[in-house]
Please model this.
Amino acid sequence: MKQLAIFDLDGTLLNTIKDLGEAVNYALDRNGFHTHSVASYPFFVGNGVKRLIERSLPEDARKDKTVVSTMLKDFKQYYNEHNTDRTAPYEGIPELLHHLQDNGIQLAVASNKYQQATLKIINHFFPDINWIAIQGQEEDIPVKPDPSIIFMILAKAHITKQETIFVGDSGIDMETARRACIDSVGVSWGFRPVKELKEYHANVIINKPMDIIPIIENGIPL
Model:
């Protein structure tokens, strides 16, 4: 039986894409660049906010460190104020988290979103979940798929790799789990297509949150 479930944030626990897209578009418009449709943003996210900003910019501008730095400042100024405006949990996620918590499973978040926003958003939407760790991107900590963030959480939880699953919606998450040598669960409701999850060798792919329960109880199906 698994004892620890680590969740990605964007595209896994919460649909954050509208707030992310609007914050980037705010920064783009403020700096004289063309904005993008919200539908474009699922393919920009995943590697942290700096890469999100770079992907949103024209190719020549993304190489300009001053432009990227200014964009980051404007993005964070807006996003810190508006990061819960249009964000919402995916259907079934609150019920899943309460079920796991009530049954003694430790819960954690491992996100490439910067730490300030990760803490605010998770505590806003899930205030009654006793997370063992809420870990976003911090200076001097490599972003996923580097497994450092997973090892930090395992150390806090005092749980073995064999007792842990990592749940995410992207190839980055599946690769993170692989590098950390823990089982991966890909979710089909997130930002990236199921094809990507398969290409990155998800141990199992699920279509609704409650499908995690038998994996917790019985392990990855053969």
In short: Residues 65-82 form the longest helix (18 residues). The chain has a mean pLDDT of 96.
